[in-house]
Specification:
Length: about 270
């Protein structure tokens, strides 16, 4: 009967060793997010023009895990994306693509173990033929950006205080219902200031070589993202490549972000 008093001790050791076994991989919650869950919520106001409902997401994740997400993005071919400058789009440190449910599922699966979060979400119900502007990154002091133009000229452009933005425009397509042309145009906008009691107007620089467009329908999306090669130099204090500038994260060299634009409805 002496062995009875040792049974509690044996149970404790058994539980300890049981807990030392292999732990299951943490579940990728993004695979449970359906494309419909990301669509614009609410209803647009009445309008005589066609209305396009868009949800714009900026996803943010660990920079050292971004390569696996980019690998998935390179296999996204569910939508034809038109590049204004095919020769220099990728040279400016950018990638793009689009698709529907099947393509979103590939991207969501690539988020496993990346600490992906939604840094910003904006919903638009746009009249066709109008433009919305989204700020992607802000510069609070003089800086520069490396940019390749359509003439294959490479230049380092000095920038005063201002913001990198994406200009989203939608247009109806003659003869097509439940479809529109979505244009995405990156640019840089400076801030109007006063100098010697005189107002100095702000100005805008359009990065035409980074412009993209696509015919998009409800249930489809377009993404615009930086190339992973632009984040390899961890010693670089300030990003200079256009792709990295567009998606710069303040005080965060260990994270990176990119943009997805989902079409939820076209009321035509």
């Amino acid at each position: 009967m002496e062995i009875i008093k040792y049974i509690p001790v044996l149970l404790v050791f058994a539980l300890i060793f049981a807990g030392c076994g292999e732990k299951p991989e943490p579940k990728n919650q993004w695979e449970d997010i359906k494309l419909e869950d990301l669509m614009p919520q609410g209803r647009p106001q009445q309008s005589e023009k066609a209305i396009v409902g868009l949800s714009v997401f900026f996803f943010q994740l660990d920079a050292d895990k971004y390569q696996q997400v980019q690998n998935a993005m390179h296999n996204i071919d569910g939508l034809t994306i038109n590049l204004q400058d095919t020769g220099n789009f990728n040279a400016n440190g950018l990638i793009c693509g689009g698709g529907d449910f099947d393509q979103w599922r590939k991207i969501a699966a690539s988020f496993a173990n990346t600490n992906t979060t939604i840094a910003k979400k904006i919903t638009f119900f746009m009249d066709a033929g109008t433009t919305e502007i989204i700020e992607t990154a802000k510069i609070t002091e003089s800086a520069s950006v490396s940019y390749r133009t359509a003439e294959n000229a490479s230049a380092m452009i000095g920038l005063p205080e201002g913001s990198f933005v994406l200009k989203l425009s939608t247009q109806t397509l003659i003869g097509l219902k439940q479809a529109c042309k979505l244009e995405i145009k990156p640019s840089y906008k400076t801030i109007a200031k006063k100098s010697n009691n005189k107002k100095v107007a702000g100005w805008e620089y359009a990065f035409d070589s980074a412009n993209i467009s696509a015919t998009i329908r409800p249930g489809q999306f377009v993404f615009l993202a930086p190339q992973s090669s632009i984040i390899e130099d961890a010693e670089q204090a300030f990003p200079t490549d256009l792709g990295q500038r567009l998606f710069a994260v303040k005080d965060g060299k260990d994270v990176i972000k990119f943009c997805l634009i989902f079409c939820g409805l076209i009321n035509d």
